[in-house]
Sequence to fold (263 residues):
Amino acid sequence: MARSALLNVMVNAATKAGRGLARDFGEVQNLQVSVKGPGDFVSSADRRAEDVIRTELQKARPDYGLLMEESGTIEGRDKQHRWIVDPLDGTTNFLHGIPVFAISIALEREGQIVAGVIYNPAMDELYVAERGQGAFFNDRRLRVAGRRELATCVVGTGIPHLGKREHGKFLEQQRRVMLEVSGVRRMGAAALDLAYVAAGRLDGFWEQGLSAWDIAAGVLMIREAGGYVSDFSGGASMLESGQICAGNEAVHRALLDILAKAG
Fold:
């Protein structure tokens, strides 16, 4: 696929940071780990990856703002553009030696996500998308799965852990979904879950309590792969609400109906 200059900047930043994560992943027991909150760990690898990404992005576009998981909001002189970055989505997987984690970088222009990169360095899997140009996995065009009946579908989700709220609400959602689908998967990295929906590996996905950096790139990825993505009410406030529901048209609609019944 032909990539724009900006998408090349994002891919280069992700792959450069990914080399460091892959190296640290091989020595995961030796990492210095601090506790940010219950069930939410930050490693030295996480911070190093964010530093690399920030350096690469600011070198290419010094005036753009940033929203980063560890550094927070960094205002830029260019108010129309903002990078949204998660340097290590799936930190808990990473620290436990599970190779399901990713770097996620999105570019927001005037409030719209126009480019996204999701990269799993442990498996060397690169997902990219640009608005109006499609979504790709290692240069192969992506399409969401075509299954329309929930009984044949495998859907992903995120399970609230220690320190998270609304466990009871999630359990009711999961109970209702389990009654309708072929299988439910919890991978532990929302960015990769959304990339998997775009790639047709998962037929659908739902989760709440997410942050903008978890899902910004994945939202564009799914749309560019022909899928549907929204908050639980069917609206477009995913980055603000932290809610996301995704799939092809039929699966997305069916999941929304189930979530509405769960209350």
Q: What stands out?
A: Helices lie at 5-25, 44-60, 91-95, 167-178, 190-199, 212-224, 238-241, 249-262. The CA atoms of residues 133 and 176 lie 36 Å apart.
